[in-house]
Amino acid sequence: MSVKLTIIEQMEQVAREHGKILPPLKEDLVLANCGLDSLGFAVLVARLEDTLGIDPFTAAEDAIFPITLGDFVKVYEHGRR
Amino acid sequence: MAGGETALREQVTAAPDRRCLWDREKSIRLTDLRDGSVLGTGLPSLAGRSVLLAVESQLSAALALIELDGVARRIVILPPGVEIAHLAAIAAATQADAAVVDDGSPPLAVIGHPAQVRCHSSIVPMTESAANRLRTEWVLVTSGTTGVPKMVVHNLASLAAPLHAQSPADGAAVWGTFYDIRRYGGMQIYLRALLGGASFVLSDSEESVSDHLARLAAHDVTHLSGTPSHWRRALMNPDLGKISPRYVRLSGEIADQAVLDGLRTAFPRAVIGHAYASTEAGVAFDVNDGRAGFPPDFLAATRDGVEMKIADGSLRIRSPRTASAYLGAAPPLAGADGFVDTGDIVEQDGNRCYFAGRKGGIINIGGMKVHPEEVEAVINRHPRVRMSLVRGRQSPITGSVVVAEVVLSPGQELERGRQIEVKNDILKFCSNILPRHKVPAAISFVPKLEVAATGKLVRRQG
Fold it and tell me: Chain B, 382-411: which have a CB under 8 Å from a chain A CB?
């Protein structure tokens, strides 16, 4: 499964568990508007660490602030290389 | 004698004849101590001294203790596997000037060369009796996770004073414990057995759970004690069915509803009790109604001489069973009012008080606090789960998130494909009970969790 698909699947799973409804998960979706709160993102990042084997945010030396879903996916794709 | 008490030896040897102390190899008749000794001619030389009980053999320690009470000024009970690096500090703080040793004792050269008495491996005829009748201090050495262990001062009375809560009569009982008797949880049960006229089956750290259960069965154990972690491990063992104790006791960790229910199913006719006790605070209460937690009225009145109160969220205890002091460089054991802060957080929910966790063990999730133990208690109630360990994992967003390692019940091993399904089911189970921030962000299945020599689940800072 691609990194992007894994992320989308996990986002949907976390949203379900937290009782949130996500808008269509397009590249340019602004994360701040996606419906997940900070706890939701914290859980998402922890799940992705288990499925993809990395936490690019904690691993990075500089703070990373992805704005859109596309940015978010790129952070993981970049981290996997 | 000072304090108006009878030394342990007289109390033990006055009891009926057929009582035994068993380890893996030996069977000792306690009444043989009437005119016998494991310390032999060395015993009088220990009179009035501060004695390190440094034997490797638990049986030797068990017997030597009986002889040293009332003779030594102080008995310093070294736990098995004490770090040699800590010996000098222990000896200095306890002013140890003698030691009881066997072939497996740690090297005592590091503490100078105290007078040493070799413990015999069996009871030898006693030629000379030690006449001293002191009120001996019993010093228990707690195994901290880091740094020099703490040395906690008790005496026979504070260690052995019984609670009056209903538990099956001790007469003709055979007590066993998963603990080593050189730790508080085991010591307290050992003395209870000795003074209650019971026989006792010693544990053995080298022995498998199956072999231990078989040995307990062979001696028809009637009263058995351990931590919830000990019991969860036993509940995973098919040989648990070999024993049928009438009293099952848990102490040393929070007894959650899942482990109490598991024991109820395993031993439908037994009294299943959980006790609250710590090395410093002593035994505070027993709960025998099969439910986790304790009734709030325990906090309202003095029971069995024990006063309890909650301050800053944690349980405080003052009782005749609390230790008197720490030796060495340590903060005072109790506050100015004599109450010991147990560090255990108690929360009241309706008509029941529950232990939420340890003061220092809180996970902070974006400012919201979670006790690992409260999440474990929920996960452990899932029908497929035997035990779990919850910790914080660093999160770039909320500082920490809750993650759980889970051991499934026997027969629940999963092929990989089903793992996700079961994980989701456990998460759903948690979501139905816990607020969102307490639900684990991630769950992993592990074959087992590490249980320390103290019988407690090993918690690491996550």
Answer: 393-398, 401, 403
